[in-house]
From TrEMBL:
Residues 46-92 are annotated as: Disordered. InterPro entries: DUF5327. This is YwdI family protein.
Length: 92
């Protein structure tokens, strides 16, 4: 079950309200808020990094001004040796 951003933000609000009512524990609540914001920022970072691989080619061209780069392809010219048994380096 994933934690939504709304749940984290509600918890941050709760921690801030508790800090306002109990000044002797402000630092503890501030640490909790810091941890929650770190979690929130980390989630946003991971979602943006995972979605970056699925950029629409039209969107890419608008942002960069160039067509979408083609993924590097390796020419699969197989080396034919007398002693080779397969494609893997571990095949003897």
């Amino acid at each position: 079950m994933a934690i939504t951003n709304q749940q984290i933000l509600r918890k941050i609000i709760t921690e801030c309200e508790q800090a306002l009512h109990n000044e002797s524990k402000v630092r503890e609540h501030a640490k909790a808020v810091q941890s929650l914001t770190d979690l929130l920022l980390e989630q946003e970072f991971t979602t943006t990094t995972t979605s970056s691989s699925s950029i629409d080619p039209v969107e890419w061209e608008k942002m960069v001004g160039q067509p979408t780069p083609k993924p590097a392809t390796t020419d699969s010219k197989k080396l034919k040796e007398e002693d080779a048994n397969g494609d893997s380096l571990l095949d003897f």
